[in-house]
Design goal:
Layout: E1 2-3, E2 6-8, H1 15-24, H2 34-44, E3 45-46, H3 50-60, H4 62-67, E4 90-96, E5 105-113, E6 119-125, H5 130-145, E7 150-153, H6 160-166
Parallel strand pairs: 2-3, 4-7
Antiparallel strand pairs: 1-2, 4-5, 5-6
Helix pairs in contact: 1-2, 1-3, 2-3, 5-6
């Protein structure tokens, strides 16, 4: 069956994929991209949703994705955090999760003074939230060392309560 001198390709099997592959992957065409691959396929063949099939094929082609130019802004160099002037002025916090659950406890909150590197380890519920994080912070850090000027939170937890807790106007 033909349409405007183009051969109809029925659905089923790998024929459509093979035709797209021939018009995209082979050495003589050189991985031209979605538009040019579609133009090559539609010269001789047609089927419904041909353009969608070509776009999907090209987008998931691993070699093309690895060689594609990165249009995103390049990240700058990492900048170190300033060194605190006194102990407990700055605290970093991290979370160890995925531990075997004992009762309702299944994670550990690690709080470290950034100047002295003194660490405090606190058992916590399996799923730590900003509310469950604040109580041990005040009980184990503020009670003994005072309120730090800043804290550095792990990227592992960034719930809405945590962002409030990190706010300097929290109190």
């Amino acid at each position: 069956m033909t349409k405007e001198n183009r051969l109809y390709v029925p659905k089923g099997g790998d024929l459509r994929k093979s035709l797209i592959s021939e018009c995209h992957d082979t050495f003589w065409v050189g991985h031209q991209g979605e538009k040019r691959t579609y133009a090559l396929v539609q010269r001789a063949y047609y089927w419904t949703q041909m353009q969608d099939d070509v776009e999907t094929y090209v987008r998931i082609w691993l070699i093309c994705q690895q060689d594609k130019a990165d249009n995103q802004k390049k990240t700058g160099l990492l900048q170190p955090l300033p060194i605190p002037k006194s102990p407990w002025e700055s605290v970093s916090m991290d979370y160890i999760s995925g531990l075997p659950k004992v009762g309702d406890l299944g994670s550990i909150i690690v709080m470290v003074d950034r100047l002295s590197k003194y660490a405090t380890f606190i058992v916590a519920p399996k799923h730590v939230t900003g509310g469950t994080e604040a109580h041990p912070f005040f009980k184990h850090i503020v009670k003994y060392w005072g309120l730090p000027k800043d804290n550095v939170n792990s990227l592992a937890f960034s719930g809405p309560s945590s962002s409030k807790f990190s706010d300097p106007n929290f109190l």
